[in-house]
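User: I'm writing a tutorial on reading structure tokens. Could you give me a worked example: one chain, its sequence, then its tokens, then a sentence or two explaining what the tokens reveal?
Assistant: Sure. Here is the example chain.
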Amino acid sequence: MATDTRKVALGVLLLVVSSALILGTGTIDIGIPTVAAGLAALGLAAGALLVGTSEEGRPV
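And here are its predicted structure tokens:
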């Protein structure tokens, strides 16, 4: 099974950045703007999609 390393790398990058944005702002007690929270949630979804479809065959 071949894995598309670019999809995995971009997916992991999106997951890390989006998670840091959501979790980082929660620990320092500053409010995250609604637009930024929406973009971070979309980043998490896109990252998970890229990692999930990085291999050949049907994604699960």
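What the tokens reveal: The radius of gyration is 14 Å. The chain has a mean pLDDT of 84.
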